[in-house]
Amino acid sequence: MEKCTEPAVATAESPPGRDRTGDLSGGLVVRKYGGSSLATPDRVRSVAGALAALVAEGRRVVVVVSAMGDTTDELVTLAGEFADRPDPREMDQLMATGEQVSAALLALAVNQLGVRAGSLSGDQAGIVVGGRPGAGVIERIDAHRILERLRHWRVVVVAGFQGRTRDGELLTLGRGGSDTTAVAIAAALDSADCEICTDVPGVHTADPRVVPGSRRLADVPYDVMAELAGRGAKVLHPRSVALAARHDVRVRVVHSAWPVVGTTVAAEPLEAGHRVVGIAHERDVRLVSLTLAGARPVRCAPALARLVEHGLHPDVLTWQDRHEVRFTVRGRAPLDVVGEVARELGARWAVEEDLGAVSVVGVGLFDHPGYLAETLRAVGGLGVAVTALSTSPTRFTAVLPVDLVDGAVRVLHETFGLSGVGR
User: Fold this and answer.
1) Residue 75: which of 120, 1, 134 has the closest Cα?
2) Residue of 333, 332, 301 whose CA lies nearest to 317
3) Could you tell me if 200 and 285 lie in one domain?
4) What strands lie across the sheet with 162-164, from one edge to the other?
5) pLDDT tens string 207-229
6) Contact by Cβ (8 Å): 122, 93
7) What is the Cα–Cα distance from 366 to 391, expressed in whole angstroms?
8) Cβ neighbours, 10 Å, residue 121
9) Most confident of 103-112, 263-272, 320-329
């Protein structure tokens, strides 16, 4: 799976624990709202009402927000009107505005209800990041920035997905970065819990749009959730899960309109033994082949490193006859750099499109060889050979034609009896 390299959050140059948060720690709520929850003015007002209700209970709230609705995609399209290959720095300047608009509008809506609220950009919230444009990594958070505002405002709304480098440059964290922002802030404020409010009532055994009979899971361990998120479950970003595990932040995934029930992601394991927990899937997968024409495979190591440096992440990597390396690429990242690397190696390269991936995720899967056999048998029953296969102690991933993905998800969900495990 994709590994998270998010560094530990250095909260502030003050002692950890209650002394830093003072009398705010017991009544503090850290909550994140996704773009679908803020897609229209009515939804923004609905969220404002929910926050006002928390304040009426005596709570103080830190809210992290994503851009409204499809704003991020619209900004990407708009940038394309002015540049064929937009400069990454300027894209970050543009993309960060979506979250800042959401934060300001939500603060206005909360104030309209008679509750003192204010918005902060990532920089104003003390979020220090490093890395490159579009892929920033949180290095530390100055918790005092938020805590000082909480002494004057009942609700602090933070623009997610962004921060400022030590040199004063704005950087975004990449897609899903608002989840990471929320978990990092919860850790910095010594909050044991972080609520992720979205358009689904928790984590399901499969995407309910593909498997209507899927069930909500009451709790999921960090490592299993990281695999589900890394393999296509959209409810949480994998970086946020890894960060939560590192700082022991319990994450609750709940529906924005009905946050009473949901899924808790925490350190507590499921029952001992082995079991399949869920089926994840992806639709945008491509298989790249590099044929080295007699070159030794060792030459590919620095070449693959170059791909990673350019934002391309080879996955499910295999060697064929010592002269061909094959790997999958997830998402729609441009493949220009593959051509450049192929020319450097004097290699031929080809891309197989229209692929997807289905992953069986669970606990102790390697402890019971029957799981892999059942996975292969179920997918094979669809009448197609698996293009590529990768495994880990908690996951089996099969790459197959994209038009068979939904069918494979449903077959595997039924094969492992997941309709009866939700709670």
Assistant:
1) 134
2) 301
3) no
4) 135-141, 127-132, 162-164, 170-172
5) 999 999 899 999 999 999 999 99
6) no
7) 9
8) 19
9) 103-112
Here the CATH number for the domain that contains residue 304 is 3.30.2130.10
Specify the pLDDT at position 273. 59
Give the residues across from 388 on adjacent strands: 399
Which tens digit of pLDDT belongs to each residue from 79-114?
A: 999 999 899 999 999 999 999 999 999 999 999 999
Amino acid (1-letter code) at residue 341: V
The token pair that represents 41 in the structure block: 């003015």
Q: Of 39, 65, 306, 337, which is closest to residue 185 (Cα–Cα)?
A: 65
- 1 domain residue, yes or no: no
Residues contacting residue 302 through CB under 8 Å, at least 6 positions apart:
none
Mapping DSSP onto H, E and C, the string for the chain reads: CCCCCCCCCECCCCCCCHHHHHHHHHHEEEEEECHHHHCCHHHHHHHHHHHHHHHHCCCEEEEEECCCCCHHHHHHHHHHCCCCCCCHHHHHHHHHHHHHHHHHHHHHHHHHCCCCEEEECCCCCCEEEEEECCEEEEEEECHHHHHHHHCCCCEEEEECCEEECCCCCEEECCCCHHHHHHHHHHHHCCCCEEEEEECCCCCECCCCCCCCCCCECCEEEHHHHHHHHHCCCCCCCHHHHHHHHHHCCEEEEEECCEEEEEEEEECCCCCCCCEEEEEEEEEEEEEEEEECCCCCHHHHHHHHHHHHHCCCCCEEEEEECCCEEEEEEECCCCCHHHHHHHHHHCCEEEEEEEEEEEEEEEECHHHCCHHHHHHHHHHHCCCCCCCEEEEECCEEEEEEEHHHHHHHHHHHHHHCCHHHCCC
The Cα–Cα gap between 388 and 374 comes to 16
121 and 262 assigned to the same domain: yes
Q: How far apart are CA 240 and CA 37, in angstroms?
A: 19
**How many structural domains compose the chain?**
2
Q: Are 387 and 289 in contact (CB under 8 A)?
A: no
- Give dist(CA 123, CA 133) in Å, integer: 15
Q: Which residues pair with 128 in a beta bridge?
A: 140, 164
> What is the Cβ-side half-sphere exposure of residue 272, based on CA atoms within 13 angstroms?
0
Q: How far is CA 298 from CA 77, 101, 145, 319, 324, in A?
A: 40, 49, 49, 11, 11
**Position 365: which residue type?**
L
pTM, entire model: 0.85
239 and 375 in a common domain? no
Q: Yes or no: say if 270 and 260 are a contact pair by the CB < 8 Å rule.
A: no
Looking at the fold, whether 90 and 193 belong to one and the same domain comes out as yes
